[in-house]
Amino acid sequence: MGDRGHQPPAAIPGGRLLFSLDPAVAHLNHGSFGSVPISVQRAQQRLRDEAESNPLRFHTVGLVDRIAHTRRHLASFVGADPALTALVENATVGTNLVLGSLRLGAGDEILTTDRGYGAVRLAVDVTCRRTGATSRTVNIPLDAADDAIVAALAAALRPGRTKLLIVDQITSSTARLLPVTRIAAAARAQGVPILVDGAHVPGMLPVDVTAIGADFWVGNFHKWAFAPRGTALLTVAPAWRERMEPLVVSWEQESGFPTNVEWRATADYTSWLAAPAGLFTLRTLGVDAVRAHNTALAAYGQRVIGEALNLPPAELPDPGGPVAMRLIPLPAGIATTQDAAAALRQRIGEQLAAEVNIAAWNGRGYLRVCAQVYNRPEEYERLARSLPTLLG
Ligand SMILES: Cc1ncc(COP(=O)(O)O)c(C=O)c1O
After folding, report:
1. Ligand 1: distance of its center to the CA of 220 in Å?
2. Domains and CATH numbers, the chain
3. Ligand 1 test: best mutation among 113, 171, 197, most atoms within 8 Å of CB?
4. Closest by alpha carbon to 242, among 228, 258, 263, 227?
5. How do residues 160-192 score in pLDDT, each as one tens digit?
6. pTM of the predicted model, to two decimals?
7. Deepest of 107, 203, 268, 342, by most Cβ within 10 A of its Cβ?
């Protein structure tokens, strides 16, 4: 097991003041929707002001180039080739784009894991219904080691038939770093395309997207890279560049990937253009310092809440790496369905003034805490004190 969270980290000075979060609430769920620093909110507002001062000029003079400049900036942050990378609104859009570009038919299949994100699962289901393809799911037990995960996925591939393997780089509701570079190598060895869903990766982990060697990689900048919501990248391997089908066909269609994917006609592009301000904020705080702080604080939060629920350390799932999200299993019988999980999350928000993620996964309820520079150890301690009574 990695960091057991015995000591909380020192605070990042001024971290809390960068955000406009309600101070009466413990915001322990950065992973779901992020939080946009005030400076980045202002940068986006300035861009909106510019657009409103002359909408015609904003949209017709230089906007495509400004988007390309932003793409190059964000792509270099994650080690992706800008010529093979498109700005998209979010990981869900990127995934749908990939699914829509595969030209699936009857007899084809998509392989996923039971750690996958719910909306991606729904997109796979709809794609299968539309195309006649089928899907299969590989189980990844909570305590599975990396070797076992790679072996299980490699064994599940059916070359020629499996047209896409989708694997999360950091799983969402189960907060686990998966060995995607090894999984991608196993898929490549069998000629099966792989989509790595790195929704939580930009900002949270150091990453070299090209080195992962996936056919497709998607990552959100609005979670851990402080970008305005609606900012993500989709990177494709060279062989896929010409085959990508935009979800919206518009004026840049003839420009090809990535511009035809990015240009969605009259739309608000200011979240993308303001995204470099998010990276500037992260770099100003110190990217490594922020990562170390967040990982250690999430581990601390897991430990104190786990102790409050009388869980031995061995029952607290290890995220498998420097992940700023940690999982606490809930007592048996609590939040075992998605509806019950959503209801519990709401009760914790309303009654304990704490925002957390609650998920039902394979018949058990799990609480997920995240850590960001605006969080303090006391917020997890306060939740740990009040949670047992609420659950009891
Ligand atoms: C693994 C994973 N994939 C996809 C998503 C969807 O992200 P978005 O809503 O930005 O599309 C999430 C969001 O938490 C996620 O964790």
Report:
1. 8
2. 16-35+286-391 (3.90.1150.10), 40-280 (3.40.640.10)
3. 197
4. 258
5. 999 999 999 999 999 999 999 999 999 999 999
6. 0.98
7. 203
